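Final report, closing paragraph on structural work. Over the funding period we assembled a curated collection of sequence-structure pairs, and we close with a single example.
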Amino acid sequence: MKRFLLWAIACLLPLLTSAQVRKVAILEAVDREGNVPYAHKLMLRSNLAKAITSAEGYEAYDRTDMDAIMGEQNFQRTGMVSDDQIRRLGEMTGAAYILVAEAAIADEKSMFITAKILNVETAKTEVTENVLMGNSPSEIQIGCTELANKLLGLNIQSTNLLIQPKPATQEEAPPVAARQTNISNQQERREGIGSLKVFPDGSKGIVFFEDETGGLAVSLDQVSVQWENAKGRKFNNIIALIDEGSASTYFIKGKGLEQTRSIVNQIGVMAPAANWCTNHGYGWYLPSAGELYYLLVVANEKKRGQGRISRARMANGGAPLDGRWFWCSNEHDRKEAFNVSNGGSIDTEDKNELNYVVAVRAF
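Its predicted structure, as stored:
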């Protein structure tokens, strides 16, 4: 009898385990404007499937036999789908969830992807997330891993699909989650400050902050541009940006990335400062007020053009931090945004005024 029970448990265990696996059907990305290359859509679909399958308890399907029904229902062009169509897609794949993604070209180097997961049984949207990613194979792979992490609320490890496999590194993973720190109490690890950081995509920066979770690097170059170029229309009040009156006591590593994506998502090419930063490649962004304060005041020691970060930039063929006022990604209101000076002052100014800009990337 005992032997029979053990045999029965052994037979039932795979069934119990498989019942816990949540199957997700991934459709080809919707392209409303028709300017996303097919190769990019294929990479998006494949990388999302790989990332979700890598998550414990999930299994993704991107079977091409789903494309027929999508074509019949004009789903691919519009991204709109009825409750019945959701259930039919679920029946075709045996999936409990359907992932619908939409892709749009942000600029010549990046794409903006928004995605939602639909529950087949209820036909309701479970979660919606978005990400701005570069359009190279490695950047799409990293961006899809980040998007899957957001959608599933998990920490999926980054693995390469469409390029030569190699071990995942900390540098290839998305920036570490934001962490609030009081700058006045921050104990920095000085051995890496001022060193040249070369990222996997070939972009470079000077390390100005480092702790046990990673660090921040600033670009070797800078530019004088507007925060927003209105061109005769009203200024936009950028949603989801935190107004900071005292950057010296509010430092969140990687916060500027979230804010930069909000800016680019809403006003696109009308945001010269944010776009100049993102054009440096995947992961580069317009720093937050707290990050910029740390760069100019703590790391560069309030020494305009002569501090250790300035010297490190010049030693590596870059420019000194010789601007007086620098734009950050924090908005004040419809008309003004925050800027930070090399002397540690924090103020607001009309968004259409020229200020210096540097790009930052977390690692």
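Confidence is low (pLDDT under 50) at residues 1-19, 71-80, 156-191. Residues 2-19 form the longest helix (18 residues). We thank the funder for supporting this effort.
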